[in-house]
UniProtKB/TrEMBL annotation:
Keywords for this protein: Membrane, Transmembrane, Transmembrane helix
Coiled-coil regions listed: none
Name of this chain's protein: Oligosaccharide repeat unit polymerase
Organism superkingdom: Bacteria
Species this chain originates from: Pseudomonas linyingensis
Transmembrane domains' residue ranges: 12-29, 35-53, 65-84, 100-121, 142-169, 181-202, 214-233, 239-256, 263-280, 397-416, 428-445, 451-471
Keyword Ribosomal protein annotated: no
Length: 482
């Protein structure tokens, strides 16, 4: 009989029951209608976590990270929205939220089942270590110096173009439209901090760095400051947050395993940063004057932490609203995959996009109940709402078929998670695991255009550098006598 602590199924059942009980105690009578959904969904997601961890995974691996965030996003957030009475800020109209959030939670349960099915289908039972790539020590100095110099010069060019660092901040505050069309340049420049960290890891002796824990903490602080300078002050909150996640993941995988206190400190820092950054995003460089508060930003309705949890780490209210609008409207036409193709063609700016239907135009149509000509409005519709894998699927195929997308996403996540688990510690590709895990989360929580942008902007340069400085093992061929 396997012990409770070593059996992922038993662990998941226990954790799922504990989560469900806590939600019932906190939510009271309002939680009754969410009881079975929370119980099933949380147990499934805990199983995904414990299964991967038992195989050597961590929060910085794809399956555990996705499942951990979805514990909130799929299992708990619909109930939390009801209990806290927090729905969509500036919703076009008010709807009867509770029944639609209950419907949404049942859909989420189906999505969790589909996700688990996909992960089990996609996972590799063979977890034998892969042949490791090796660092080409003769190429490393040349490639690393070239990449670091190039990205640093591009960032210097950006600062000079706007009159220095302060001029850059002022321009972003007063004339944000000046930054339009510079995405490719930002993609190159803002890779500098992670390229520098990767270079440091590859150049230095891991054992010696591990003995100097203050140096590791100093690395993380320096990385955070560089991320602010290289893109963070451009209003890109996610650029900084996910960059720190990547850096923390490298520390965890290379130097020492992070402990509970590190995760608690990191979570507290994350929330504090996201709240305070709202002031900067609203007022720019003037936020440093101390004259403005979080309330002045107008970005939060009441408790800012609750708003962050429900708006940044959940799509439940958005999904509840578009479900209501879909069934309440007879004028919306599903896009049949056009928004995905639109996102794909965005990586080819030299071509006219033959698919003008974007998630922005489709979302605006359903959200505001009006028909929008995607050709006439191309590039003119701005939409800050993120629909997620299920929401964008609904815009394209209606409310039922998107559940099946979670099977496909699960298969991809399962395959990638198995690949990451099979990488040896000395393999330079290990340094990319936190980014890959982050990309899997973006796949579920964000839209197709966000995913394309995330991969190209945040990963392209790092992947290219790792590829160029690596020696790949030659395939083993069996020789049989004729």
């Amino acid at each position: 009989m396997p012990k409770l602590k070593t059996n992922p199924i038993n662990q998941a059942i226990f954790a799922g029951l504990a989560t469900t009980t806590a939600c019932l105690l906190y939510g009271g009578l309002q939680a009754v209608n969410f009881f079975p959904q929370i119980a099933i969904t949380s147990t499934i997601l805990f199983f995904i976590i414990f299964r991967s961890v038992a195989q050597g995974g961590s929060i910085f691996h794809p399956a555990p990270l996705v499942a951990l965030v979805l514990l909130w996003g799929l299992a708990i957030s619909p109930l939390a929205s009801i209990v806290w009475e927090k729905f969509i800020l500036y919703a076009p109209k008010n709807i009867e939220w509770e029944p639609w959030l209950i419907h949404t939670s049942w859909i989420y349960t189906a999505c969790a089942i589909a996700l688990l099915t996909g992960i089990l289908l996609g996972s590799d039972n063979n977890l034998e270590p892969l042949p490791a790539w090796e660092v080409n020590r003769s190429m490393l100095p040349v490639v690393s110096l070239a990449f670091l110099t190039f990205t640093l010069l591009v960032q210097a060019y950006i600062f000079v173009s706007f009159g220095g660092v302060y001029g850059y901040l002022v321009e972003w505050t007063e004339q944000k439209e000046s930054f339009k069309g510079l995405g490719s340049i930002f993609m190159l420049a803002e890779a500098f901090p992670i390229l520098l960290l990767i270079s440091f890891v590859l150049f230095t002796d891991r054992e010696k760095v591990r003995e100097r824990i203050w140096l590791v903490y100093g690395l993380l602080i320096a990385f955070f400051l560089l991320k602010l300078l290289f893109g963070g002050f451009r209003g890109s909150r996610s650029n900084t947050i996910w960059g720190i996640f990547w850096a923390a993941g490298i520390i965890h995988l290379v130097y020492f395993k992070l402990k509970l206190r590190h995760y608690l400190i990191g979570t507290a820092f994350l929330m504090a940063f996201m709240v305070s950054y709202a002031v900067y995003k609203s007022f720019g460089v003037e936020a440093f004057s101390g004259e403005y508060t979080v309330e002045d930003s107008g970005r939060f309705d009441g408790n800012p932490i609750a708003s962050i949890l429900l708006e940044d780490f959940s799509r439940s209210t958005v999904h509840a609203y578009i479900l209501h609008e879909y069934f309440d409207s007879d004028s919306y036409n599903v896009k049949l995959g056009a928004t995905y193709l639109n996102s794909l063609f965005k990586v080819m700016p030299w071509m006219d996009n033959p698919f003008p239907d974007s998630k922005n135009t489709a979302g605006a149509e359903l959200f505001y109940g009006r028909t929008i000509d995607p050709v006439l409005s191309y590039g003119r519709i701005r939409n800050s709402r993120v629909f997620g894998l299920y929401g964008e699927g609904l815009l394209n195929f209606g409310p039922a078929l998107p559940i099946l997308l979670f099977i496909g996403a699960g298969m991809l996540i399962g395959k990638i998670d198995s690949f990451c688990l099979r990488l040896k510690a000395e393999d330079p590709r290990t340094l990319l695991i936190p980014f890959i895990a982050n990309g899997c989360l973006v796949l579920i929580l964000s839209d197709s255009d966000n995913l394309v942008f995330f991969i190209m902007k945040n990963g392209f340069m790092a992947f290219l550098m790792i590829f160029l400085i690596s020696i790949r093992p030659k395939p083993i061929t069996s020789m049989t006598p004729s």
